[in-house]
Design a protein that fits this description.
CATH topology of the largest domain: Quinone Oxidoreductase, Chain A, domain 1
Distance between the termini: 23 Å
CATH class of the largest domain: Alpha Beta
CATH architecture of the largest domain: Alpha-Beta Complex
Order of helices and strands: EEEHEEEEEEHHEHEHEEHEEHEHE
Oligomer: single chain
Strand content: 25-35%
Length: 335
């Protein structure tokens, strides 16, 4: 349904896999039942967006507006949504809708829903001036906060939090790939009095310095052994060869959590690496409960994000900088 005013919105659109996004104007949509429309204030750029654009993730909706770390102000609501939400700042994450009826939804595991919709993948996302979202999957944010600083919390933070929960109650934790997610969850870990061990690309001494600045007990190259065996490790880098590396770094009974939605193939490895009751786990998507927990704890821990701001129309430059490792922290698009 189009807006009665016939207003237009601007967006950066993926029309063909592997091709640059295209700047377009579209009619401004009205929200349907259970939906809201946001005026986008900021949308962070996630590695998952890169996987969508580059074709690592199959069958995206095309044409597609990417982006799933959205901060915006509610400007219109559909039927069934209270009008009091108009004017509120909310955040919209990757998980945009679940069926509510499948085995997983009925088992408190909606992140594994059989019929989900994903923001910026199977439905349009936030690389735009306006976006439609399900009201039940949009989370209240601090109205006084900086929208640019808040945006990376909506995926990098949420996936980091779910990965940390999967890592369980560990004291020494390794973080492989010190980008948007790791720099957020490292702050949560140090606030919780855990010891953080940061692993970066061999040449990325700036990321190592940044990790130490955020309280890491140790920072080094991804192929280095930490000074002590770890209780758990989270792999944020989409590099399958880091799996055996991380397994070597954890103690018996330790856990290695793969925190990305896409990873290159894991190489063959000796059984001895996983023997000793070491566990290899993955993280898939998030739940609304994850969002409620994390946003509250991020506020208590006073998490701050490092961001690089790009105008909306420079989305391709932001994606390219992420693709080639030229970012420290997170890229954020601002309409």
């Amino acid at each position: 349904m189009l807006s009665e005013k016939g207003s237009a919105m601007r967006a950066m659109v993926l029309e063909e896999i592997g091709k640059p996004l295209v700047a377009v104007e579209r009619p401004l949509p009205d929200p349907l039942a259970g939906q809201i429309r946001l005026r986008v204030e900021a949308c962070a750029v996630c590695r998952t967006d890169l996987h969508v654009v580059d074709g690592d993730l199959p069958q995206p909706k095309l044409p597609l507006i990417p982006g799933h770390e959205i901060v915006g102000v509610v400007e219109a609501v559909g039927s069934g949504v209270g009008p009091e939400r108009i004017g509120r700042r909310v955040g919209v994450p990757w998980l945009g809708h679940t069926c509510g009826t499948c085995f997983y939804c009925r088992s408190a595991a909606e992140n594994l829903c059989d019929a989900p919709l994903f923001t910026g993948y199977t439905r349009d996302g936030g690389f735009a001036t306006d976006v439609i979202a399900d009201a039940d999957y949009a989370f209240e944010l601090d109205p006084t906060g900086d929208p640019v600083a808040l945006a990376p919390l909506l995926c990098a933070g949420l996936i980091g939090w779910r990965s940390l929960k999967r890592a369980s109650d560990c004291r020494r934790i390794g973080l492989y790939g010190f980008g948007a997610a790791a720099h957020i969850i490292a702050q949560i870990c140090t606030w919780q009095k855990r010891e953080v061990y940061a692993f970066t690309r061999p040449s990325d001494t700036e990321a190592q310095r940044f990790a130490r600045e955020l309280g890491a007990a140790w920072a080094g190259k991804s192929d280095e052994s930490p000074p002590e065996l770890l209780d758990a490790a989270i792999i944020f880098a989409p590099v399958g060869s880091l799996v055996p590396t991380a397994l070597r770094a954890v103690r018996k009974g330790g856990r290695v959590v793969c925190g990305g939605i896409h990873m290159s193939d894991i190489p063959a490895m000796p059984y001895a690496l996983i023997w000793g009751e070491r566990e290899l786990l993955s993280v898939a998507n998030l739940t609304r409960q994850d969002a409620r927990e994390f946003l509250a704890i991020a506020a208590r821990a006073r998490v701050h994000t490092r961001t690089t701001v790009y105008p909306l129309e420079e989305a391709n430059a932001a994606l390219d900088d992420l693709r080639h490792g030229r970012l420290s922290g997170a890229a954020v698009l601002v309409p």
